[in-house]
Write a structure and sequence with these properties.
10 strands, alpha/beta, 235 residues, 6-stranded mixed beta sheet
């Protein structure tokens, strides 16, 4: 079985000695949408940052069949769209169009192809008319959508999102959940939003103190009050 994401025995310690991951195994199949939950400091963001080589620990990480190592980083970063918790980390151009075009231009695509991808990515996030807008003037929910569009323009196989609903008002959150439900990509989403998890993901992985403590059908995990309480989660 070809897993889109294959993590085996992954451990990682920060320079100050904090052990963030301790032997994590995670396999995500093509087309699967998986939630990653756990308390603050569980290692969720650290794990996510290994999937396109921003962090490198001990153990094996393969994405789309490629080991995460220097010679593959260009291909891996085109295959794995990473959307950070704070969209301001991803939006830095004077216009939405330039932000969304940045990745495809960097890939050396023709002007026509870049234009096609920008239009397609903005349409995919429900903001086809926003190319000329100033990212700085968008609402929180709109910024999240544009951050996702910047990643979709690379036509990735996998979307990895860190706390996508954090800081959104109810309408922005609802719109984002609808968007994630419609996107076809394989998805790994790190989140504290257990209501979203129940709506969107058939499978949930619980991480605590750098280890996978549960991995299974969302409905079963969310019904296990003792498991949730033990790992600082509330149904």
């Amino acid at each position: 079985m070809h897993h889109t994401i294959e993590v085996r025995g992954l451990s990682f310690a920060y320079p100050d000695g904090f052990q963030a991951l301790r032997g994590v195994d995670l396999h995500v199949s093509p087309g699967e949408k998986v939630a990653l939950v756990g308390p603050n400091g569980a290692g969720k963001s650290t794990l996510v940052l290994h999937l396109n080589g921003i962090l490198r620990g001990q153990g094996e990480v393969q994405v789309c069949g490629l080991p995460v190592e220097d010679k593959n980083l260009g291909r891996i970063r085109a295959s794995v769209g990473l959307v950070f918790q704070d969209p301001d980390d991803q939006l830095f151009s004077p216009s939405v169009r330039e932000d969304v075009a940045f990745g495809p231009m960097y890939m050396g695509l023709t002007e026509d192809e870049v234009g096609r991808r920008v239009q397609l990515a903005l349409a995919s996030v429900g903001m086809p008319e926003s190319a000329a807008r100033v990212p700085h003037h968008l609402s929180g929910g709109e910024k999240k959508r544009i951050a996702i569009a910047t990643v979709l323009a690379m036509e990735p196989e996998i979307l990895v999102l860190d706390e996508p609903t954090a800081g959104l008002d109810p309408r922005g959150r609802r719109g984002l959940i609808r968007l994630l439900a419609e996107l076809p990509q394989t998805m790994l989403v790190s989140t504290h939003d257990l209501r979203m998890v129940q709506e969107l993901f058939l499978r949930t992985v619980v991480l605590d103190q750098g280890q996978v403590v549960a991995d299974g059908p969302t409905a079963a995990l969310m019904a296990d009050a003792a498991l949730l309480a033990a790992h600082g989660l509330e149904a």
